[in-house]
Amino acid sequence: MTASPISDEITEYRIEIPDEDVADLNRRITQTRWPRQLPGTGWERGVPVDYLRDLASHWTGGYSWRDTEARLNAFPQFKTVIDGAPIHFVHVRSPHPQARPLILTHGYPSSFVEFAEVITPLAHPDDPDDAFHVVVPSLPGYGFSGPLEQTGWTLSRTAHAWAELMRRLGYDRYFAHGTDIGAGVTGMLGSFDSDHAAALHVCADPTSLALLEGMLPNEDDSFTDEERERLEHWRNYGAEGRGYLHIQRSKPQTLAYGLNDSPVAQLAWMAEKFEAWTGPTTRVDREALLTEVSIFWYTSSGVTAAHSIYEAAHSMDWPAPSTVPQGWSIFGSESLLRRALNPDGKIEHFTEHEAGGHFPALEVPDLLVEDIRDYFREYRQQ
Q1: pLDDT digits (tens, 9 = 90+) for 106-129
Q2: Which of 349, 148, 362, 133 is nearest to 256 (CA)?
Q3: Smallest Cα–Cα separation from 167: which of 84, 82, 252?
Q4: What is the DSSP letter of 322?
Q5: Nearest CA to 188 among 156, 162, 212, 154?
Q6: Which residues contact 319 (CB under 8 A, 6 or more apart)?
Q7: Which of 6, 64, 111, 261 lies at a 20 to 30 A Cα distance from 351?
Q8: How many Cβ atoms from other residues are within 10 Å of residue 265's Cβ?
């Protein structure tokens, strides 16, 4: 990993994982002490051994980190230090003069790679009027935005850092999009930087609603029988699916030893979420999954990402609601999300897609690109 200076504040960046780190990953996987699978059990108890063995075998066999590294380095990448943290970001300027700045923020457990398939279509559309200058930062402590030397990197602090990043890049007015944690950061940009954030666009899916306690709608007489069944389903899903949240928002350092020492532990921790959170017809392919896990492993992001969940859970610096225009794009949609997020229909841009899930930029990138374009067209002249 090297950086060469181009200014006092921002440096060019290339991903260059040392050969010994790649060899160490392969060695550790080969020496994994695999657990037994209890008879008759499957995904309901966690990642099955046979599934993970096959995935780990592909990680050391068919998957090529060097090919991935070359593809990622095709994107112009940079680093800058904001509020004491090294911030890594992709910055692709569109050749079209009417292009508008757009910052994309990923979620958990993910990285800037989440948006790899949408950067080029957004920056180089067929219609120049749809063009964006695309900025994709890595969340503090995720991927190459590290290592962190401070605690306290809450969503609010990250939003302030993003506002500073856009200022350093010379963007006085910009758009913002985010998913998962990134949706929270994006919303806060509207609160903290309303003079510069012109419009916001965020994503949601049923799993995110179920995992956030208190977000599911309250049942009333207007619910159909099917909606009552679905509500019970998502209540059970949330109760069973919050284990990863509970440990990370309470004792992240205890988890850190396994994630930092065993690539298979890191693989299992992330593979479970990707399996559970993506739509059954749009699963993220294993090459993309292994790229995300590889970045977490090579940068020790499993540790700092776990701590970021702790920071969010213990944060008290939640801002007032934003007054900046905000649109929603729902993936894997069902009526319960409408009831929870837009019960009175006041959110004018509230698009619902049957396809996709928690990672739409990886699962259904074309749908997400079109939704982003459609939404921001109205605000381009502002």
Answers
A1: 999 999 999 999 999 999 999 999
A2: 148
A3: 82
A4: P
A5: 156
A6: 156, 188, 191, 192
A7: 111
A8: 18
